[in-house]
Design a protein that fits this description.
It is a single chain. By secondary structure, the protein is mainly beta. It has a single domain, classed as Distorted Sandwich (Beta-galactosidase, Chain A, domain 5), CATH 2.70.98.10. Helices cover 4% and strands 47% of the residues. The radius of gyration is 19 Å and the shape is globular. It starts with a strand and ends with a strand. The mean pLDDT is 97. This is Aldose 1-epimerase. Pfam families: Aldose_epim. GO terms for molecular function: carbohydrate binding; isomerase activity. One of its GO terms (biological process) is carbohydrate metabolic process.
Length: 333
């Protein structure tokens, strides 16, 4: 199997490309280490939503609904306030319609390429974001830490590994999510109507008009309940919903099935992610976002046990890490 890892461009932006047999992937170091492409070139599948050349300027302004953006800390914080161990950090209110801070500080800034290369069986790239005093992220989260993100491409698909290393002298918040943007359809000859999905959701959080959890659950509709077993269109209704995760058989995942092609895309995200967000752009066919998230939206402002809402604290010297994988399964016909 041919493997390659090399520096190149994607729509004019600096990229590191990985190739392994039929698969290829590209990551954008200078735009938040966004994994902007994952493809099966033999079958012409494009699993992630990629910006066209004409869309690149808009993408750079708001690099959220293409590829796999890293959100740290993820989602919304009421009035931009982030209470932490007796202090309150003030984030910019960048979503005027809700009066909240949205999506954190790492998805649109440069990361460092630490290394890339190949072995006989895979190609890989590792990127790092080292936050120290004077860094733009330190302005809002005054902790010394390193985010390190590795992508590995091989015959089994794409593996993602991320770690957070607290290199400072005090406990820091560790809250991560991905605004993963999946094409539906991802196959060139399929239609959105050929697609159904399954997702390991548990309970649905009730959300306020400001898109903040009230702390209560709301009943699943009969259609939503189908997410747990599959056979539901990703566009069955408009979704901007927040759920707990409920791993099945020890795994936390989303499966997207193309009935026409007889193939299933599996997004296995790891059990450290205790929440799901799902957004489908007002049920507009073409793509949707199953977003694995460590923490409840607005978690530092919610009066619930930290373990229940994924409010993870890293002590000095500690490392948190998790792995995820995107791969396909051929279905029996």
């Amino acid at each position: 199997m041919t493997t390659k890892a090399y520096e190149g461009t994607f729509q004019g932006e600096k990229a590191v490309w990985l190739q392994a047999g039929r698969y290829e992937a590209a990551v954008l170091p200078e735009i938040g280490a966004n994994l902007i492409a994952f493809r099966d070139n033999e079958k012409e599948y494009r699993f992630l939503r990629e910006p066209s050349l004409d869309e690149m300027e808009a993408f750079k302004e708001r690099p959220i609904i293409h590829g796999i953006p890293v959100l740290f800390p993820p989602n919304r914080y009421e009035d931009g306030k982030f209470p932490w161990k007796g202090k309150v950090f003030q984030f910019p209110v960048n979503e005027p319609k809700t009066g909240n801070h949205l999506h954190g500080f790492v998805h649109d800034i440069p990361w460092e390429v630490e290394r890339f290369g190949t072995t006989e069986g895979d190609s890989s790239v590792t990127l790092a974001l080292k936050v120290r005093e004077g860094h733009s992220v330190y302005t809002y989260l005054p902790f010394e830490f390193t985010l390190r993100l590795t992508y590995v491409l091989n015959q089994f698909g794409l593996q993602q590994h991320i770690s957070v290393h607290n290199e400072g002298q005090e406990a820091m918040p560790c809250l991560i999510a991905y605004h993963t943007t999946i094409n539906a359809p991802f196959a060139p000859n399929s239609q959105a109507a050929d697609y159904s999905f399954k997702m390991t959701i548990g309970n649905r959080w009730e959300m306020s008009e400001r898109m903040l959890p009230t702390g209560e659950y709301q009943p699943l509709s009969s259609e939503e309940a189908k997410m747990k077993v599959g056979d539901l269109s990703p566009f069955f209704e408009s979704m901007d919903n927040h759920y707990t995760t409920a791993p099945q058989n020890g795994r936390n995942y989303m499966e997207l099935t193309d009935a026409r092609e007889g193939v299933k895309l599996v997004y296995d995200v790891g059990t450290s992610y205790k929440q799901w967000m799902i957004w489908n752009n007002g049920a507009t066919e073409g793509f949707f976002c199953p977003e694995p998230q460590m923490n409840l939206v607005n978690a530092p402002n919610v009066d619930k046990p930290a373990d229940e809402i994924g409010l993870v604290s890293l002590e000095p010297g500690e490392v948190w890490s998790e792995s995820a994988r995107l791969y396909t399964i051929e279905l029996k016909k």
